[in-house]
Amino acid sequence: MKKATIWLPVLSIVLAIIVESFLANGGRHTPVQHPYFIYLLLCFLIGFATVTVASYFNVKAKAWIEEQALFVAATILFLNILNIVTKKLGLLPVIYFPSLDKILGVIVEDREFLALCLASSGKLLFTGYFFGAIAGFATGIAVGFSKGAGYWINPLIRVLGPIPSTAWIPLVLISFPTTFSASAFLIALAVWFPTTVMTSSGILNVQNAYFEVSSTLGAGKYYQIFKVGVPASMPHMFIGLFNGTCASFITLMTAEMLGVKNGIGWYINWQKEMMAYANVYAGLILIAITFSILITLLFKVRDYVLVWQKGVIKW
Fold this sequence. Notes:
Helices cover 76% and strands 0% of the residues. The chain is mainly α. The longest helix is centred in the middle third of the chain and has 35 residues, at 111-145.
């Protein structure tokens, strides 16, 4: 990549700052307390300018900026265009498309309440995710290693698995004593299915030679399960966990509408009913950031656990 290309993020940010500073507002948007979009752009400018300069002296910084330059520049350009068509020209309905300043202002000014909502959602999400993953691993291992278990569990998986977990809401509401336990069950059910399917699939695809060699060397049944079969099927297990993570976030949004009086899903639904779309977008941004962080952490765990794959398959 040419050296000029690595400066694209900085140029894109400078262009956005010029547009925000010198192009007049359309006048249809409610003024905000502070120019939050300018503050965000200045933070980006300082950060990317620093990394770009450092790329001339640091190999890691150079590799990172060369890989991310085009994407970052395009993202900033998109935000700039969005700012122009909303705040500057007012081409989109104000009530449904608030200015970026307004959205960022909600995140900054309501940060304490939003943090409480995220904490409540996190508690519900991790409770359901933990029990769903544990149940998925248990049933997946049972189906993968036992024909008897597969005989009884496989039909259950085929019947219950394709049904969206949210379709069980009417039954769940009358079966659990609290809305928290009902919501956690729905999330666990959403995680259970992909984890079970991918775990059992991974075990069934382990080469039989591995078990024959371990048996020849005197390995018992439990050793073959937990020291041979499970480690060899872990790539499939992590795929199940990734799919379960996506399903858990989707279910979380619906589960928090069952009567839970806090949480980020509840917050978005509440603000939507009040036609406060700046707050809705702020909640969606926080969900996207949280999901991205969790997926990144899960990838880090996968890379650590499956370090033996590096150099064997394409990462």
